[in-house]
Specification:
alpha+beta, SH3 type barrels, 7-stranded mixed β-sheet, 5-stranded antiparallel β-sheet, 6 helices, ligase, aa-tRNA-synth_II/BPL/LPL, BPL_LPL_catalytic, biotin--[biotin carboxyl-carrier protein] ligase activity, Biotin-[acetyl-CoA-carboxylase] ligase
Amino acid sequence: MLDCLVSEEIIKGLKTKIIGSAVVIHDRITSTMDVAKKIAHRSFKNGMVIFTEEQTHGRGRSGKLWSCQKSKGLLFTILIRHTIQPDHLCLLTGTIAVSITETIRETLKLPAVIKWPNDILIYGKKVGGVLVELEKRPKKQPIFLIGIGLNVNTSEKELPKQTRLPVTSLAIEKNELIDRTTLATALLQDIDKWYLILKDEHFRYIAERWREFCITIGEKLTIADCGKDYSGQVIDISNNGGLMLRLDNGEIKIFRGEHATIKY
């Protein structure tokens, strides 16, 4: 028997100001981002959340596929009306990554960390990720679509093969099944808290928490940005969420997550 999400059960435990103003749950759709894009051009409650039990064309950054067995994950998109400076766009991704990481740590007592800018890892294996897209509207405030995917109760044999990073699920790492409704409520609660911190422009505080969780700091790596490759050592995350890389020639360069990708 499938463990199905019920919107009333998720909303019942929420005490948020913006996130979760409305919760809609689908059984099977192409992706929550696709549905959110259509809703963004209609009237909706700010902070609306769209869940689905199954996606046929889920995606992550750079168009990479994201797959998860039906009713085994948490797959959702949040719609937010928000005006943000272009150089702070990456910070929105980091804010959400911080909130997810914090929720997993506090709710499940698992040592979740962030691989810049958007991957959530446990013991070096990916358990989830964040995708932020901007939906522009003529003469209107832009809409941010915040897509989140988490492997919750996926078993070892159900995990996708041949992925960029090793993958896992919360249930595998916890060695027990997770109550998805309780986790969904906790996630929305924490996302609301951190989004309000972002809205109040406490960027330094967000960056400090991001640094605390980010395992990319100190790594030697190569970043692809605007058709060029840059190699060096990661020394920090800037207050607007950019990755600070000391290049092999000694120069320090900052990369923004919406343009740059780490090469593997």
